[in-house]
Write a structure and sequence with these properties.
The chain has about 290 residues and is of the alpha/beta class. Helix content is about 25%, strand content about 30%. It has a seven-stranded mixed β-sheet with strand order 6-5-4-3-2-1-14. A seven-stranded mixed β-sheet has the order 7-8-9-10-11-12-13. It binds zinc ion (ZN) (2 copies). One zinc ion binds next to loops.
């Protein structure tokens, strides 16, 4: 059995024609686990033949719009799709796992703007149940702690450094096939080293500092990850494959972008496999 990591979205809040909002699909142990659900996540999942109804868990990293704008779409589409196929019951509820804090409030009200639509569709389809989530909130810790498990798959989380968005977490997904670490948004920090220790695949947010300094984006440098530092982290954690995502700026927006990201990561000392991410890039492991 082999497992797969697919980038479902590699953008930031900036709308781009070829990059959906932030998200990663990890398929391991027979499960489909989605981390974050930015703009157009449902469309990218459809491109790899995963329906919203096929998701076994959606894990959220932090309360920033670019990681959440596709979530109501997943919840709503799962309900409609399953209803139209005559599927029902507990599986209608999308399992969503998130750190307690501002996300709890966001999730509580996620579907409020759709209540009239839900009412009309329920009457139309003769259904009692509506689109719902099965919510698991956990206390975000600075230690790496288990937050969820199903079958052979265990998910751990730790807080990362994305202040002032508190808490922000990264996830580590362990299965018999190996380990995937996903940083969410963060600076280069010790917690990511912990998250990524010995990982087969590390999906890391990335910023190319040399292309940001002196631009208006300089104001957000303090909570994102310099690519040289990412290379240092991936090297010292013994990571096999590194995938860059959420790149600031997008590599296609600057001259020789891919080569410059690669050079920065390599100068940090990382010699393993490196993907400067595009939507639907994938790495197999196990
Ligand atoms: Zn972001
Ligand atoms: Zn963020």
């Amino acid at each position: 059995m082999s497992s797969v990591v697919t980038l479902t979205g590699t953008s930031t809040p900036t709308p781009l024609p070829n990059r959906a909002g932030g998200g990663v699909l990890v398929q391991t142990g027979g499960l489909n686990l989605q981390i974050d659900a930015g703009r157009a996540t449902a469309m990218r999942l459809a491109a790899v033949d995963v329906r919203p109804a096929d998701l076994d868990g959606v894990f959220l990293t932090h309360h920033h719009s670019d990681h959440l704008q596709g979530l109501d779409d997943l919840v709503f589409s799962r309900w409609i799709d399953m209803s139209l196929r005559g599927e029902a019951g507990a599986k209608i509820r999308l399992p969503v796992i998130a750190p307690d804090g501002p996300l709890a409030d966001f999730l509580e009200h996620l579907l409020d703007p759709w209540r009239e639509d839900i009412k009309v569709r329920k009457a139309d389809m003769g259904r009692e149940d509506g689109p719902e989530m099965n919510l698991t909130l956990f206390e975000a810790s600075r230690a790496l702690e288990p937050v969820w498990e199903l079958g052979d798959v265990r998910v751990l989380a730790t807080r990362v450094q994305h202040d002032p968005v508190i808490p922000s977490v990264g996830y580590r997904i362990e299965s018999p096939d190996g380990v995937v670490a996903i940083t969410g948004d963060t600076t280069v920090c010790d917690e990511v080293g912990l998250l990524a220790e010995g990982a087969d695949v590390l999906v890391h947010e990335a910023m190319l500092s040399e292309a940001v300094i002196g631009t208006p984006r300089e104001s957000i440098m303090h909570y994102h990850s310099d690519s040289v530092g990412i290379g240092e982290t991936a090297k010292s954690a013994g990571v096999k494959s590194l995938m860059l995502t959420h790149m600031i700026p997008a590599p296609d927006a600057i001259e020789n972008g891919v080569a410059r990201y690669e050079a920065a990561v390599r100068s940090g000392g990382f010699t393993g496999s490196l993907v400067v991410g595009e939507d639907l890039d994938r790495v197999e492991y196990g």
